[in-house]
Amino acid sequence: LRQMKIINNIFEMQEFSRQYQCQNPHKKIGLVPTMGYLHEGHLSLMRTIQSSCDCLVVSIFVNPIQFNNRDDLEKYPRDIEHDIALLSGLDVDILFMPGEIDVYPKGVPEIFMDYPKLTNKLCGITRPGHFSGMLVIVHNLFQWVKPDYAIFGLKDYQQFILIKKMIADLAMPVKILSGEIIRDPDGLALSSRNVRLAPEERINALVISSTLFKIKREFKSGKNQAGYLKKILHESLHKFKLDYASVYDTDTLVEFGDNDIIKSGVAAVAVFIGEIRLIDNLIL
Ligand code: AMP
Predict the structure, then answer these.
(1) DSSP bridge pairs for 56
(2) How far is it, in rounded angstroms, from Cα 124 to Cα 117?
(3) What 3-state class would DSSP assign to 246?
């Protein structure tokens, strides 16, 4: 295993990448951006990107400007020691952990990055500003790390679509890879926020993935009318406070109408289990 170096300073990160590219012009830098409290979902992104790159950078930064809810930010789980222990079991070259003051020396940036047609739906409706904050930090991390590759999980499907668009529109020289959703054996999609679920809530949360799996089975058996699939979603999730649950076009994220017959799509859900908002999705 390679020795992992921790870099907190942004200038030092930039210097590292500059020197690495100078000394190894044909080698590739890969970046896995995270907010820490790492789990197998994050680790699987690292393993996937490893086959495309020679130098692996993992970033941990709980980005305050992508939290539209103060309570969610304050309660976001953190355990850097545990994260470092997990990372030392992988071939990570750099753990980049910039400080908040250094990332936002002038406070909250005034720029607003938006794709109105993609953010006026799904998580964008109830999390105003979330995607702008996310795109700003991803953009800035790319400026500092200058990765050849970066990887994002399909767990955050809307985020993945938005990042790919930003990379294309701003001609950013980085290739974007995706990672499959990693789940616990009982189906619950891994999330740093799962630790906040009480034991009983965690059991309740299983209805999310089991409903998505059911929809996929129905779809595969030929029941591909959007209205039918949406009805299953709403019926099995009716006990919970629902943010959204429907079937959407995989590229435009436009919701299918009840009478649409779908050939492909993504079933996506955001639901409150107690106070914790969980998201999950499945590509049909
Ligand atoms: P986060 O730390 O929650 O910001 O997530 C960092 C990256 O890990 C994002 O690209 C997420 O999409 C990805 N990720 C989070 N949970 C999972 C999961 N269960 N499976 C795959 N990727 C995930």
Answers:
(1) 30
(2) 10
(3) strand
Tens of pLDDT, residue by residue over 134-165, are 999 999 999 999 999 999 999 999 999 999 99
Q: What whole-number distance in Å separates Cα of residue 232 and Cα of residue 235?
A: 5
Instruction: Note the pTM of the prediction, 2 decimals.
Output: 0.98
**DSSP letters for 82-136:** HHHHHHTTTT--EEE---HHHH-TTSS-------HHHHSSTHHHHSTTHHHHHHH
**How far does residue 41's CA lie from ligand 1's centre (Å)?**
6
* 263 Cα: distance to centroid of ligand 1 (angstroms): 27
Is-catalytic flag, 82? Answer: no
State the burial class of residue 170 (Cβ atoms within 10 Å of its Cβ: 0-12, 13-18, 19+): exposed
Calpha distance 128→142 (Å, rounded): 23
Total residues found in the chain within this entry:
284
Q: Are the C-beta atoms of 139 and 169 separated by less than 8 Å? A: no
The residue whose CA has the least distance to atom 5 of ligand 1 is 34
